[in-house]
Structures are given as structure tokens and as C-alpha cells.
Amino acid sequence: MIPMLETRDLAAVYGGNRALAIPHLAVAAGELVGVVGANGAGKSTLVNSLLGWSRGRPRISGEVTLAGEALSHLPSFERVRKGLLLIPEGKLVFATMSVEDNLLAVGGQLLGDRRRAYALDDIYDLFPGLKERRGHLGAQLSGGERQMLGIARALRLGPRALLLDEPSIGLAPRLVATVLATVKQLAADGLAVLLVEQNVRAAIEVVDRLVLIERGSIVAQGPAGAMRDDPRIAEAYLGAHAT
Amino acid sequence: MNLAQQLINGIVLGHAYALIAIGWTVLLGVARLVNFGHGQMYMLGAFVTWYTVSRLGLPYLVAVPAAMLAGVAVGYVMQRVMLQLTLKQDLVSIMIVTLGFGYVLNGAAALVFGSTGQILETPLSRLDIYWGDLWLTWQDVALVVAAIVFFIVLKYVIDHTAVGRTARMVAEDPPLALLAGINVKKVYLGVFAFEGAAVALAAALVAPRTPILTSMGFDEVIVTFVVVVLGGIGSVLGSYFAGLALGLFTAFFGALVSPAYTTAAAFLVMIAMLVLRPGGFAAAPGSR
User: Fold this and answer.
1) Would the CB atoms of A96 and B165 count as touching at under 8 Å?
2) What is the three-class DSSP state of A6?
3) Please, which residues bridge with residue B114 across strands?
4) The pTM is what?
5) In this structure, what DSSP letter does residue A119 have?
6) Which phi and psi (to 5°) does residue A8 adopt?
């Protein structure tokens, strides 16, 4: 089976320092893969590099394919149009635009390959809270609403694969559960999802597979159930003591 | 002094200022860029209009789009040349490059159109309207109407269309716009082309009011600067009202005090405004 999203020899270098070196990583359609690791381990660099995107200026190399199609030679916006969507950490909505304008500004494109670009009504069905706030500016939204709007805007673009960078950061526990349940549902609907999370305890409950990154490299990966017992995960992130 | 006549002069002048400045307003609002060749692009628009009407003998209505096309071409080429500077937001280099472009345009225009002054006559500029003691031309009326229509259409496009939303996304956060599938480079090129078209339209409408010279451009860029700053950087409505206010100020100050000190007085107002209300007329964040 061809993975929906696959990368080989992905590397990112900041000012001469190698921040990322991933020999191989693949996510199948309908699979939810969690990426965990300490602060500065390279989790965000991984998802940003898959899209060739960054607010800094790293040198990125390596192969990225989406549904078997090579994307590495394409600029970020072209990869987005192919269906590789990133919901970044931090600023993820246009603060001076209304919720509805944030959503209307994208989507509506003719998408080939039977990709589903969510209509505005579909978005409001999925996120009723956004419908209520449709006239409010992005700047007026709470952290959870911004996260929802970031995901919603990605859905408007007909994603095949979603890259989420720390969607639970700064959210109340109840909202974390809601956001992760939504992500789980999107994967169940057939999207390939790569979820970067610091909240390992919450992430491990929803992901199919877990990837542990340290100093820019994958040091362990496996099914979520098995990784729960991995001492590197259990000790460092779940607060358990290895026996 | 006839106050009503000064009011008419101020309104016409104000719409001229607003129209001359609008390209730069959008440029600054969307691309966070400046163009110190703006005045020379105005000059080029005036001369292309003049050449099309006077030398080629074509109708004024053909000359206006011809001037706008020339503006689009110059704007596109200019941005193409300095695209890397734009992406890096290297404002100092962009200032110098655009200033240099302005002088190149001056020289090229003198070579092509000659360095003697010309009068751009249009069918409308020869038609006077008298109303008691009051006087204006149909060119003035056309200028005011065109400016109002242009601003209404532009405001609508920015607020309610896909093109406007795309421009606003790039204006707020170019990296985030990339993640929404927007080709930011293309938007930058488009904005510069729009600026070229807008200033050429302004030239085709405003230049018939005064003699034109290939060496002109400095006054226009200064007026633009004042309007853009007073209006609140990037604000379309702010620019309209700032242009109008500056026009009325110029007309009344010129009549009541002295036309010789109008520019100096306008800059004093601008300095005061920058100190007291740094955001300009449209000080609210995100206002357009």
C-alpha cells in the first residue's frame, strides 16, 4: 500500500546546526500518528519541513511524497494546494479578519482526485461554536476557538494529510479532549494525520501510532498501546516508574 | 475671496490627492512596501495619456486604459526586479531601488517625450461649467465622480471578494497566507501592478488640470506620502478622507494665507497628526 504521506532523508539545518534528520516516516490514509518529544527536540521542525515552511530560514532537504506524488520541489503554497495542510503552533488565524472571512478566504477551489473540500455549512456543522462567532474578528477568539478555526480553514482546502503542531497548547483539559476527539474523527474520515503533541498523556489516548523524537531524530516508534509501556515514554512523559 | 469657489477647488483637489495616493495606500497596506518612484509613475501615466490623445489622435477614453496598461507594465517590472528584497522586507534597499527607478523613468520619459512642458487637453477639460461666480470644468466633475466610484469599488473588492480577502491575508501575515495556499509572490506582483494602474488612472484624470513635464513627480510623491500617513497606513477609507481634507486645507490655506506655504503647512499638520494620533484618521487596528 502506498502511504498517503511519506518522507525520506528529511533534514533541516539552521545556521550550520542540524535540527532534524529523519531517514523515513510514513503515515497512511486514515492513520493518526502522534509525534512526541521534549522541548526543542525537533517536532515542529519536522512538520514545518514536510511543508517546506518556516517563519525562520532553515535549509531543508529530503523527499516528501503525498499519495505517491513528489512534493519536494514545490513551494509551500503548492504543497498546500496538493492537499498537505499544516496547522502551525502559535498564530494560526488571521486576527484582523472575521471568522467567516478566515474561512471564505480559502477553499472553493476545484479539487481533483475526489478530494473533499468542506463547504461552509459542513464546517459549521462540525464546529457549531464557530458559527456563533462567525462575525467576530480572529483576535476576539479564545485559544480553543482559534484552534478550531485553524483546523476548519485547513479543511476548507480539501486536505489529504493534516499536520497539527501542538493543538492542545494553552487549552483547558476539557478543550484538549474536544480538539483531540475532532482530530481523531478527521483521521477516521480518511485523512492521514501527523499530530505533534507535548501532552503525551492526552495524545496517547487517541493516536494509532506514536513517534518519539530526540535531538531531531526518531528514537522510538510503534503502536500507541506498545509505546505506552516503553520506558522512555512511561518515565519521561507519563510519570510512571519502570520496573 | 469666494469661499464657495475655494470649497469647490478643495473638493476637486482633494479627490485628485486621494486618487493619486490610493495605489500607495494599497501597496503599503498589503505588501508593507514603499515606492518612491510613485510620482514618476504618475508622470508616465500623464505622458502616455497625452501621447495617445495628442500624437496618436486616439480618443481620451482609449488613452486612459492605455496609460493604465503602461502603469501595470512598469509596476510589474519594478516588482519583478526587486522581488527578493520584497520577500525579505528589506525596506531601506527598496526605498533606494524605487527612488532610482523614479529617476530612470524621468530620464526615459525625457528621451521619449522630450523635456518641454505639454498641455494634456481632453474633451472634458475644454468644457466649462459656470454657476453664478463659481467655475469648474467637466474634467473636474469626471475626476471627482471617478475617484468616488474607484474608492467604492476598491473598498467593496477588499472587504467582500476573494481577491480582497487574499490581499488582506497577505497584508496581515505572509507566512500564514502561504499555509492557506496563497502564492504570496504573485500577490506582491499584483499589488505593484495595481499601484501602477491606479496612479496612471489618477494621472489621466488629474493631469489635464495643469501643464505636464517629464521632470515632475516629486510633488505627487510628497502629496501621496502626506495622504497615506494622515489616512492611516493601508486604510482605503482613511486615504479618501485624508486626501479630501488635504485638498480642502490646500485650497483654503492658499486663499486665506499664501499658496507659497501650503506644502510646509501641510507637513506641519502631518507632523502634529503623527504625534497626536500616530495611526492617522483610521486609527482603529485593522480598519480599512
Assistant:
1) no
2) strand
3) none
4) 0.86
5) P
6) -130, 135
Asked if the C-beta of B283 comes within 8 angstroms of chain A's C-beta atoms, the answer is no
Question: B264 lies in a domain?
Answer: yes
> What is the complex's ipTM, to 2 decimals?
0.90
Instruction: Tell me which chain B residues have a C-beta less than 8 angstroms from the C-beta of A96.
Output: 168, 172, 285-286
Is B168 close to A96, i.e. CB distance below 8 A? Answer: yes
- DSSP per-residue codes, B219-252: HHHHHHHHHHHHH-TT-HHHHHHHHHHHHHHHHH
Domain that holds residue B20: 3-276
Q: Is residue B286 part of a domain?
A: no
Which 3 state secondary structure label does DSSP give B129? Answer: strand
What stretch of H or E contains B156? Answer: helix B138-160
Contacts of A162 in chain B (CB under 8 A): none
Residue B281 domain-assigned? no
Total count of domains within chain B: 1
- Supply B129's cell numbers: 461649467
Cα distance from B192 to chain A (closest Cα, Å)?
21
Distance CA B33, CA B174 (A): 13
What is the CATH number for B54?
Answer: 1.10.3470
Residue B116, classed as helix, strand or coil, is: coil
Residues of chain A contacting B169 with CB distance shorter than 8 Å: 94, 97, 105
| Domains of chain A, CATH where assigned | 5-237 (3.40.50.300)
B181 reaches A (C-beta below 8 A): yes
Whether residue B228 is contained in a domain is answered as yes
Contacts of B50 (CB under 8 A, 6+ apart): B63, B113, B118, B120, B207, B212
pLDDT digits (tens, 9 = 90+) for B108-152: 999 999 989 999 989 999 899 998 889 999 999 999 999 999 999
